[in-house]
From TrEMBL:
Chief site of localization: Golgi
Native organism: Prunella himalayana
Subcellular location: Golgi apparatus, Golgi stack membrane; Golgi apparatus, trans-Golgi network membrane
Keywords associated with the record: Golgi apparatus, Lipid-binding, Membrane
The keyword Transmembrane helix appears for this protein: no
Encoding gene (name): Golph3l
Protein name: GLP3L protein
MF terms (GO), sorted A to Z: phosphatidylinositol-4-phosphate binding
GO BP, sorted A to Z: Golgi organization; Golgi to plasma membrane protein transport; Golgi vesicle budding; retrograde vesicle-mediated transport, Golgi to endoplasmic reticulum
Length: 143
């Protein structure tokens, strides 16, 4: 985006990124904006209003792990790899595979576990434009 990142204001900047992403998804019609009242204060939430887009995304991740699995992150589509890393970091990876049968769920979770257990520094050194994805995984693994 051309913005500079100040490590001392990282929490503020990450909040702005979340707000900008939510705004972009609202403009695309995937999310909506609602005000929720939580005891003493109001909070803005962004529930999903386009469930078909969510289902398409879940199906894409499920197919990439079960049907199009290459067992080499260098050959994976970068967007799919990024989605898997972010789903893991957001602690929603189990939800992605929850609708699968038990045997497919186990296969999917084992494959993603193997992928996420790889050494991010080694994988980033292999290049192919995935260095930032592996850096994000390394950052989440350290926290």
């Amino acid at each position: 985006s051309g913005e500079t990142w100040n490590p001392f204001k990282l929490q503020y900047q990450l909040r702005n990124v979340r707000e900008r992403l939510a705004k972009a998804l609202v403009e695309k019609g995937i999310l909506t904006t609602e005000k929720q009242n939580f005891l003493l204060f109001d909070m803005t939430t962004h529930p999903v209003c386009n469930a078909s887009e969510k289902q398409r995304l879940l199906k894409k991740l499920q197919e990439s792990v079960l049907e199009r699995w290459v067992n080499e992150p260098q050959r994976m589509e970068r967007r799919t790899l990024a989605l898997l890393v972010l789903a893991h970091a957001s602690d929603v990876l189990e939800n992605v595979f929850a609708s699968l049968a038990d045997d497919k769920y186990d296969v999917a979770m084992n494959r993603t576990k193997d992928l996420l257990d790889m050494d991010p520094e080694v994988e980033a050194a292999k290049g192919r434009g995935t260095e930032m994805i592996w850096a994000v995984l390394a950052a989440f693994n350290k926290s």
